[in-house]
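Appendix B. One record, verbatim.
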Amino acid sequence: MNEVKTIYVLDAGGTGFKFTAVREGKEIIDSFTIPSAGKNLDEVLQKMIDGFAAILSQTSIPPAAISFCFPGPADYHNGIIGDLENLPHFKGGVALKAMLEEYFHCPVYINNDGDLFAYGEALAGLLPEINHLLEQQGNPKRYKNLIGVTLGTGFGGGIVLDGKLLRGDNSAGGEINRMRNFLYPLTSAEDSISIRGVKRVFAREAHIDLAACPDPFGIYEIAMGRKDGNKEAAIKAWDELAHVLADSISNSVTLMDGLVVIGGGLAGAWPVFMEPLVKYMNSSFTDLQGKQVDRMEISSYNLQNPQELIAFTEKTGSMIKVPKTERDIWLWYDPIKKTGVGISRLGTSSAVAIGAYAYAIDQLEVS
């Protein structure tokens, strides 16, 4: 009988370190956050040590492993963190994994937040939910691949292929933020798919100083007509995010062919950006002969829309007879290729925690 293991989990960001503990796929304590800022590297590292020590004092259960996300660039396999914009004290490289293993005498696994978010949603969120709905509809189709993207201070991503997390040869798999910006080709997609991008466009369209710009939630409320302000500018801000996001996701889906799940602080504004996002994904190119060519080989569906969710999961296709055989053989064939885009079913933080837990369990089982 396998031993039940407790994994200590951290969601590390530029402003806060959020700690929890997961056992049998569920959080067993109320998560808590410690501000990540410090006067020097030693103070920041001590905050991490204190956070994990606080979990131990709450649970009295030593960790089988510590598993957490940390911003990159990093050598995640060896647990060495590189130069970070939001955590400047890590300049020059810090061997975080080895340090924590010395303190807590257990394996330590570090990953990118987008990777762990995608893994959590693939195991216990959007992907299994969609496969369950397909089964309920009598549809034999099942999905095994998923890309998760997080929208917030930055633009993150992670990819799960056939149930396995894509890490890459350089700890750089799924780094979607480095895709070219569709609307501003001299910069990256993150300049539009981020808090700063939404605020910049609103300020530009509303002809106000950036310092006077409301936060993205305020811009969302204006776009929804629930708050006074320049509604056209607010809609434009979210539409521009949707346009650049659609191009980045379409490029990714073209290569990996699976479902798409969106999380992060800006995901809550999906009622204003999801419809244009899917519309842009389903748009077309015009080739050099003037012919219209679909943007993707597969069609995109808005899984937040009940009617589109039904259309996505309902059984389509038909049985076709195998030709030139003596036996009467029939096979199911569906010529319609589909991808679905939905919002996190677990919540971003919980998806990261479950992804971190599952990744640690995977590693412990093969070690």
